Amino acid sequence: MKSIKKTLVIGLGLIGGSLALALRKAGLAGTIIGCDRDQEEVDLAIQIGMIDQGSTQAEDWIAEADLIIVSVPVIAMESVMEQLKPLLRPDTIVTDVGSSKGSVLQSAVKIWGALPANFILGHPIAGSEKSGVSAALVDLYQNHKVILTPAPENNPQAVSVVSQMWQAAGAEVLTMDIERHDEVLAATSHLPHMLAFSLVDTLASQDESLEIFRYAAGGFRDFTRIAASDPVMWRDIYIANKPAVLQALTEFEQGLSRLRTAIEESDSDAMLGIFTRAKAAREHFSRILENSAYIPMQNKLINYRTAPGTALSGRIRVPGDKSVSHRSIMLGSLAEGVTHVKGFLEGEDSLATLQAFRDMGVVIEGPHQGEVTIHGVGLNGLKKPAGALYLGNSGTSMRLLAGLLAGQAFDVELTGDASLTKRPMERVAKPLREMGAVVETAEGGRPPMMIRGGQSLKGIDYKMPMASAQVKSCVLLAGLYAEGETKTTEPAPTRDHTERMLSGFGYEVVRDGATASLQGGGKLKASDIDVPSDISSAAFFMVAGSIAERSEILIEHVGMNPTRIGIVNILREMGADITLENESEVGGEPVADVRVRSADLKGIDIPQDQVPLAIDEFPVLFVAAACAEGVTRLRGAEELRVKESDRIQVMADGLLALGIECTVYEDGIDIVGGKLGGGRVHSHDDHRIAMSFAVASLRAEGEIFIEDCANVATSFPGFVELANGVGMNISVEEA
Ligand code: S3P
Q: What is the C-alpha separation between 266 and 252, in angstroms, rounded?
């Protein structure tokens, strides 16, 4: 950073004073000179060591300063600039802290004719109701955001100096253009303050105001706290940021009038729509602030430390099936009428699907303890979302949505997290293009995906090159919007939840061996859904109960769809003691309670026809193989390389680290059963890898430390509690 020998702070209020304190602490600002209208404030600032020298006359110091921070109210900016103009050296860097930027730019243009190259406009998003030198805090900017609004005429070096200055004060620096800054602040700060001032003023001027305030508890108090802010400052802000504030107010008035109409007309759906969308948005926002939703999940690092557990015992119920949960939201949203869902998986993946449909205007109540109510909008009732649909870690959401969005009237962009962004989407883009859809992907056929609306789709007869339920479902869902018949033929049976649920919603799907077909242009009729427990989640406990000694557990109400039971078949062939009890059917899907007892497993050649039927269960099956006697061989499983991680390589790396011998092939692996040692493994952003190694700990001779396990929340919220409840020994450590 350019060396700063002298810094001049003009205005020693809370903002300028706190910055002086923080820069002094960071040792970055050289000699600090402070100026304020009030001599007593200057004296106090010198006395507490905030500044080295100062006075009420900024003119005396301008020519010698290398850096000038103008921290006066926006309304006073222009007169400070007038003082600066004749004395400012061309190499001195100037920045300000005003909360509206358009007006500061205008003043600068008025004074200098154009914004000086070294004058960088900025705005720290921090403050408090207090003011003056005595209120200044050295850590006011710690973990707060500062927005810089560099203009094209600005000198990039000066931008970098100002940015480093704020970082040294502990702030996170963002950049935005001036207009955007003013719009964002108008909407997020200026409008809410205006509403609070106005509401309190309106209520206070009613005759019975005293009575009203006596009863005004939580809601009023929460909503109007900010009406106690500084009136002069806020008057200045509304004058300075008038156009953006009025625009935000217009949009708010339109929203309020929609709500007014909904109330006048007792329009329950419209009211619920507004409230559920707002509630979800507010919760999402709170989670961002608390660092706990799927956006921050990428930032939050959770590790598992596992130790061998005791003999496992107990009766458990694992969360709802992920595949069925996704589809319940999709078909419920596109149906006519109201769909009630029970047993919905409240994991990040299925919540991403739920949020996507809310973003497209569907009213969805819940989830509350697995219950969700979806107010279907019909096949053509979705609305264009305001922005891209963010699908987190969920490949199922992206691939299935691509199909049903290909037939909409609007354009939509699908994005996801770092892991999803690496996954192949060409496999769905290709058949969709054959149907007439316009689908763009990023380089290498990866997300984000852009789907152009307003295309007319035609049915196709698609011979799938890989056994993928997501590709099949994508094509069939696009087929709902296509002219004529859409047909898919799969090379091996894959999960058929889409076909079953479409039939359950009254949409005819003809199934003939490997082929499924439907006619476009029909309707879906709302139908209640009881989501069975996820066999893919139960799988961890099937292996755990088998490999742990003297164990017996019962896993209730597990989905036993024949296209998903590869795990049971393979484990049984390895010698596992698994029995099914209470077999029944719920909403077109078979379910059973699964009893698992310890058993001595032996290595096998995994039958290839079982591979698609156990596709998500291989990570934990590899753990079973590591505990089995002899060699387990898997082939024909190249799809495992394009899951949330390359599951063949990542599991092999982890098993090798724990002392298990294995050989990797392009489409599979050989695993030699043996003694599992302790060690350190990495989940590679993959929930099922994390849970599989937690299960491995049951037979490990030492502790297994599993890095990066926050992802478990995508499919199995509550995994650790449930596992420890039956006798496993996992502790969660936040990194
Ligand atoms: C799923 C299909 C499978 C599976 C995924 C869920 C689905 O993916 O791995 O977890 O819900 O359709 P592929 O279709 O890529 O095999």
A: 21
- Distance between start and end Cα atoms, the chain: 32
Write down the mean pLDDT value for the chain. 93
Q: Which DSSP helix (H) or strand (E) runs through 523?
A: none
393 Cβ inside 6 Å of ligand 1: no
Confidence grade of residue 294 (pLDDT, cut at 50, 70, 90): very low
Among residues 676, 685, 684, 616, the alpha carbon closest in space to that of 306 is found at 676
Q: What is the pLDDT of residue 217?
A: 63
* pLDDT of 284 over the 80 cut: no
Query: Do residues 590 and 561 touch, judged by C-beta distance below 8 A?
Result: yes
pTM summary value: 0.74
Answer yes or no: is the C-beta of 616 below 6 A from any ligand 1 atom: yes
Q: What is the dihedral of CA 698, 704, 708, 714, to 10 degrees?
A: 0
43 counts as catalytic: no
Q: Ligand 1, closest atom to CA 323?
A: 11
CB count in 10 Å sphere of residue 482: 24
Q: Report d(CA 260, CA 654) in Å as an integer.
A: 59
Q: Position 94: which residue type?
A: V
| Contact partners, residue 238, CB within 8 Å, separation at least 6 | 190, 194, 245
Residue nearest to atom 11 of ligand 1 (CA): 323
| Residue corresponding to tokens 């919760």 | 283
Q: Which of 685, 726, 491, 483 is nearest to 598 (CA)?
A: 726
For residue 93, the CA-to-ligand 1 centroid distance in Å is: 56
For residues 690 and 720, is the Cβ–Cβ distance under 8 A? no
| Contact yes or no for 353/399 (Cβ under 8 A) | no
Rounded CA-CA distance 246/58 in Å is 35
Q: Is the predicted pLDDT of residue 296 greater than 60, yes or no?
A: no
- Residue 126's identity, in one-letter code, is A
Model confidence band, residue 308 (pLDDT cutoffs 50, 70, 90): confident
Structure tokens at 470: 């997501």
Placement of tokens 């082939």 in the chain = 635
